[in-house]
Amino acid sequence: MKAMVYTEPGGLEVIEPITLPMPEPARGEVRVRVVASALNHLDLWVRRGMPDIPPSFPHVGGCDMSGVIDAVGEEVHGWAVGDRVVINPTLSCGQCEWCRRGEDPLCNDFAILGEHRWGGFAEYVVVPALNLERVPAHISLVEAAAAPLVYATAWRMLITQAAIRPGETVLVIGAGGGVNSAAIQIARLAGCEVWATTSSAEKMEAAKALGADFVLNYVEDEAWGRTIYQRSGKRGVDVVVDNVGSASWATSLRSLAKGGRLVTVGATTGPLAETDIRQIFWKQLHLIGSTMSTRGEFSAVMRLIWQGKLRPVIDRVIPLADLRAGHELLEGGNQFGKIVVQVGEE
Ligand code: ZN
Description:
Number of helices: 11
Bound molecules: zinc ion
Distance between the termini: 17 Å
Strand content: 25-35%
Helix content: 25-40%
CATH architecture of the largest domain: Alpha-Beta Complex
CATH class of the largest domain: Alpha Beta
Structural class: alpha/beta
């Protein structure tokens, strides 16, 4: 099968086309003919290389994928060749303490398709049948592939971990990212007032189109923390979504109302930031982490996409051969929404 791989950890130059042997599904697995696979920031981290991630090179990345079942392994029930599917990228053992509690993303053997195991930037992928979700006929497989990682992550982050409620004000830092554009839609759907910060006039318009009630440009408004404070009637907001990290952390904390919650699933500008601990106890703030999702959360959010209540934002669709250009685009950060790689035809 044809694939694009990372030949070793490194820059854009390590992304190369290759021909690989056809993978065979083991017990409990299916082989999917990949139609589309979306890019995530995670793909950039995997390509650059982290200790033991991915486990070996060459590596096939791509955490989000959709396609058509092409072969079914032993002991797979309820799935057949020809079924249109989208794949939950979270892999968990199902047996450890955390899995028994239903907390798949805390699994001791937690892994992600495309990161710890080969993913969707290839004509075929082998995945556990437990990770499949059926795609209804009215949803294109390109649209389906744009959804899994960012919507499941944003859903767990806001609905389960931050436990947002109707009427609360949710501030999303950096509206252009995939998780954050999903977060704007989910917070809006949950009945929250949604505020967002972003870096250009075009992104401000796009954030408003997604449902943000108020958007500010943090490049032009360097003292944006003050703007949030004033606009909230010197109260602050109930929830801040900060996946930006060191560049915004201190201002995000200051933007919270008493009893407010800061939730994070990432730190794109760096993982180290100063926290004024006095703010935490005086204002009784909550710092909340989140990552990926459980199977139940994945199913719940995909159902809302099938119903049209949440709509994946697609910046552009590129062919698999242009994967290197896709990485370059995502690294530049000028996209709004997902870059989807079309691997095969529907
Ligand atoms: Zn486990």
